[in-house]
Amino acid sequence: MMRKFDKFVTPLSKWFQVIAGIGMIYVLIVSVADIIMNKVFKNPLNWSFDSIGLVAVIAIVFAIPGVQLNHGHIEVEILEERLPRFWRKFTGLFVNVLGLILWSIITWRSVLYGIDILRSGEVSMTVEMPIYPFIWFQGICAAAVTLVLLLQTINYFRTGTR
Question: Which residues lie closer than 8 Å to 13 by C-beta, 6 or more apart?
Answer without folding.
Answer: 65, 66, 68, 69, 144, 148
